[in-house]
Amino acid sequence: MGGRPLLNRRLAGLGTTIFAEMSAIAAATGAINLGQGFPDTDGPARVAEAAVRAIGRGHGNQYPPSQGVPELRRAVAEHQQRFYGLVRDPDTEVVITTGATEAIAAALLALLEPGDEVITLDPSYDAYAACIAMAGGVRVPVTLRAPSFRPDLDELYAAVTPRTRLILLNSPHNPTGTVLGPAELTAIAALAVDRDLLVVSDEVYEHLVYDGVRHVPIASLPGMGERTLSISSLGKSFSFTGWKTGWATGPAGLVAAVQTARQYLTFTAPGPFQYAAAEALRLPDDYFAGLRDDMRHRRDLLADGLREAGLDVFRPQGTYFVTADITPLGHRDAVAFCRELPERCGVVAVPHSVFHADPEAGRSLVRFAFCKRTEVLSEAVTRLTSLRGRPA
Ligand SMILES: *Cc1c(COP(=O)(O)O)cnc(C)c1O
């Protein structure tokens, strides 16, 4: 093999995710895992039953249509209209994917030429850097800084160059919990229109917004419907992260571009889950309100508990993550803190730096997931409180 590295230049440095390392530590030590963002209880029974029923009836057990089963494409289009007034044609403007992750990967593979620049909010979901790299693109991060974690619009404008192809947005934002507001969305939309940029908008936390804050898809702003690909999935909205059923909606040209790439990645998304997803998206409003209230309650439980434990807490407007600064505990390096935490008190969390292009940014910040049972969150808080007053 001539001493050549096995991993190609595009993937060099991507390594194993911190989530794998931290979840392994959690499993080995029996620590409470507030690291990886998956719920510890399953979603609605009737949605699970719909998947079982689909398998029993032979719905989707063989290759479904590559673009997704018509029932689900229609349900996705109805969902976009019901919640946001967005009108999309289920035949040409909706594509079903193997989770939101595949939609993001396919979009970047389809839309980027090597060297094209992609503006991202930083910190960001770890798949963005990897998918941009695999597509041969160049990531241009715009940093969201504590304590507000809001984008600096001047910085965003300054980040655009003649090589900028698209803005990869994520709101509600993982890991900070920021939900972009009307003024921010309007400014970003004006920038996209003015500089003729595409927007890929990852909205997997669309139903997890709190305190009366509203999620507004950027596709609903003037001039944006024709240049925005909106991406979401079943995982976070219905607590079935293992089903990996997602979708992208947008103008026919953008959807066709995604479909061109993804037909050669997975060809199609798992069939029975698509039928169950169609039922999930049609659940009545009280399901979505209940999910939100339930998660807000858990957010407050964890955020209040972390504050009691002496951390500096940033209460999120959306998602199921809370960020906290460990400086008041006498620590400065969140990576070291998170590595020791399972041993010291039996809790797993993730350092913000793994989400940052510049690992020095967010150095003392830690992300905790609150999509866990309330008794688990209470126990985690009790354990973390035991750190108070102990030497760093
Ligand atoms: C969890 C997550 C995803 C992944 O969604 P899947 O449907 O599981 O692929 C995408 N984006 C963000 C920001 C996430 O937190």
How would you characterize this protein structure?
- This protein is α/β, with parallel strands linked by helices.
- 40% of the residues lie in helices and 15% in strands.
- The chain is built from 13 helices and 13 strands.
- The strands form three sheets. It has a seven-stranded mixed β-sheet with strand order 2-8-7-6-5-3-4, with helices on both faces. A four-stranded antiparallel β-sheet has the order 9-10-13-12.
- Helix 5 links the parallel strand 3 and strand 4.
- Helix 4 packs across helix 9 and helix 11 packs parallel to helix 13.
- The longest helix is centred in the C-terminal third of the chain and has 24 residues.
- The chain is globular, with a radius of gyration of 21 Å.
- The termini are far apart.
- The mean pLDDT is 95.
- The site of pyridoxal-5'-phosphate has 14 residues, from helix 4 and helix 8.
